[in-house]
Amino acid sequence: MTEQDGGSRRGLTILARGLAYVINADSRTTFEEKAKIVTVLGKHVARGDISHGQLQAIADDAFLHSEKVPIERFLDDVKNTLTPAQKASMVINLYDAMLVDGQVATGERTVVDKFIASFEIDRQTMRALREVIMLKNDTGLFADSRHPFNEPTFRLQLQLIGAFDSETPPELQYKPRDEKK
After folding, report:
1. What DSSP character marks residue 168?
2. Which helix (H) or strand (E) covers residue 173, if one does?
3. CA angle 114, 58, 61 (to 5 degrees)
4. Phi-psi region for residue 91, left (φ > 0), alpha (ψ -120 to 50) or beta?
5. Which has the closest alpha carbon to 23: 14, 11, 36?
């Protein structure tokens, strides 16, 4: 195993553990929630980064870790080892996992809020991410033609600032939709 292999496996383990904290938060884990870890990490099996056995070991470790190690300790251990992009990806994946079963439990919300606070993600960024993830998961759009987001005036406006090939890191700009009064 190369250092890169170990490093990527460590990163995937951190992500899986974060997901497990959200999945275990409400003490009533659904199949869809448990499958989220396999869904998120399964592409690494397809690429040959990890084997099926390693994926299962990472998932098992994640659930065991989230049951035995307090979330505050986990966050203290990882917050300075993750890059800003990894923190953002983690929070996006956690939020997505929280919404996968269509319900947000209080415990799940509390866990995600702890990650957001620990990773120091600002409210405006979180609002933009939350709206995109909620839109992604709202399949009611396809079942109800009267859904508010199906109105002709609905617009999603996100803008990535900075090119990936430039020295300036990309930045996401978000224009919130008008709030209904």
Report:
1. S
2. strand 171-175
3. 65
4. alpha
5. 36
Structure-block tokens of residue 178: 């008008």
Quick one: how many helices (H) and strands (E) in the chain?
Answer: 8, 2
pLDDT tens-place string over residues 39-57: 889 999 999 999 999 999 9
For residue 151, the tally of other CB atoms under 10 A from its CB is 8
Q: Average per-residue pLDDT in the chain?
A: 83
Look at the block and give the residue holding tokens 């505050």: 72
- Indicate the burial class of 29 (C-beta count within 10 angstroms; 0-12, 13-18, 19 or more): middle
User: Residue 171 belongs to what H/E stretch?
Assistant: strand 171-175
Dist CA 98 CA 60 (whole Å): 19
In whole angstroms, give the CA distance from residue 31 to residue 118: 28
Give the length of the chain.
Answer: 181
